[in-house]
Amino acid sequence: MPDSQVISFDEGISRKELNAVRQRFMSLHRERLRRIQAELRPSQQEFLALLPLLLHINHPMLPGFVSSETPTGISDYSPSRQALDGAKKLSRSFEYKKRAQRVYRIHGLYLMGSTGTIGQSFGSDFDLWLIHDPTLKQAQRQLLQQKVAEIEKSATELDLELHIFLVDPERFRKGEKSKLSHESSGTTQHNLLLEEFYRSAVLLAGRYPLWWLVPPEHEDDYRSYADNLLSNRFIKAAEIFDLGGLDHVQAGEFFGVYPGFAKKLRY
Asked: What would the pLDDT profile of 212-231 be if each residue is shown by its tens digit?
């Protein structure tokens, strides 16, 4: 960005405004998650509440245990009473112990697709994006992939068709191809997946996307605006993850895939 266009943070933004945006984000997603849960049977509701806890810890008596070396820990997550009760039902010996100064390898869990929209129904699949620490080594990714595969198997016992996709935010921003959609993993383009995430994803646990703090009028200079938010310490890197902006979405990507484009409603 030319020097003449450098963003004036003294005039254009405040921490109070950013906090208000964060609060709106959290309120919106709590309500959307509540509506999703209302469509499920009690046993399915319990599993959905338990799901973040299964990924937050490694416990040999809970679904998804592969190894004590499997990357775990969800940023800014504390298990609900419903999650802890659900774990107790599966293992009476289970006792949750919060550890101080942990390294959180999982940055966010987001329900994707129809589960986040008016199209949600009792028979809907659950696609879950697991946004993880980009510094994970290949062996760690493989262990995490095994863990989510075991959790998916447990979900089928409750008639929940669950698909968990691992997302490295750095690789995603670079446009590296990976299977991130159950229905159209091979054809949906990067920007369409990103647009779908920002439009329909519902926070289950973890951090919020940096994109929500960038006003619509700065979409075209998303990278510069986002970098300035971080470098000027308006936000902490440990609070967010960054999948990138929508400043380069081409109209041609929408033909035959998505008939319309949802307006950004953050501000």
From this structure: 999 988 999 999 999 999 99
Residues 6+ apart with CB under 8 A from 181: 112, 113, 127, 165, 188, 193, 196
- Please tell me the pTM assigned to this model: 0.85
Name which of 122, 106, 118 is nearest 200 in CA terms.
Answer: 118
The pLDDT of residue 179 is above 70: no
Structure tokens at 44: 């399915």
Domain definitions of the chain by residue range: 3-40+107-254
| Residue 168 and residue 92 in contact, taking contact as beta carbons nearer than 8 Å | no
Specify the 3-state DSSP secondary structure of 262: coil
CA atoms of 113 and 188, how far apart (whole Å): 13
67 neighbors 58 (Cβ within 8 angstroms) = yes
- Rounded to whole angstroms, the Cα distance separating 185 from 191 reads 13
pLDDT value for 186: 43
User: What DSSP string runs through 13-42?
Assistant: --HHHHHHHHHHHHHHHHHHHHHHHHTS-H
The helix-helix angle for 15-38 and 42-56 (nearest 10°) equals 140
Residue 60, helix vs strand vs coil: coil
**Under a CB-based contact definition with an 8 Å cutoff, are residues 228 and 7 in contact?**
yes
CA distance 168 to 130: 9
Q: What is the spatial distance between Cα 51 and Cα 73, in angstroms, rounded to a whole number?
A: 12
Residue 166 sits at φ, ψ, to 5 deg, of -80, 130
